[in-house]
Amino acid sequence: xxxxxxxxxxxxxxxxxxxxxxxxxxxxxxxxxxxxxxxxxxxxxxxxxxxxxxxxxxxxxxxxxxxxxxxxxxxxxxxxxxxxxxxxxxxxxxxxxxxxxxxxxxxxxxxxxxxxxxxxxxxxxxxxxxxxxxxxxxxxxxxxxxxxxxxxxxxxxxxxxxxxxxxxxxxxxxxxxxxxxxxxx
Length: 185
Hints:
This protein has helices spanning 3-35, 161-172, and strands spanning 40-44, 50-54, 63-66, 69-73, 81-84, 87-91, 99-100, 106-110, 116-120, 129-132. By secondary structure, the chain is an alpha+beta fold. A 4-stranded mixed β-sheet has the order 1-2-10-7. Strands 3-9-8 form a 3-stranded antiparallel β-sheet, with no helix packed on it.
């Protein structure tokens, strides 16, 4: 087999693999959106990839959805979420696609299935993107090097709870990770 034929075969396999991955994600999103029950929907944002939008008005303190930990470990990566001092989880959809804002409209509380329940912190109008503050769970955030949320209270590079604990506590009350509640300087 000539080298160019081998590259073409590898490229074709990569395309098939990529299409299967895309199809699997689309199916996962379709299944997750059915759980939204006409309240929220995962869709593409203008500039952040996937996001979650309210498709009807969501009243303050409504539990929007419950996340489940698909895997748990002490290793962290850009798509894991911290649930304890040395525990990180990979959450299911829709939680995996909720974007960050330093002025979030969604807060979290620990749940009994290894992740977080997500609650509206204020009335969320139809069409509004649902966002949560990664500093509400991440002691030191590694998923955002510099925030681009655009809110008036954007913390720029100070996303993690360690550097933003006062703001997180003031903005979200008790709606942040339980393991962080007793931490102080």
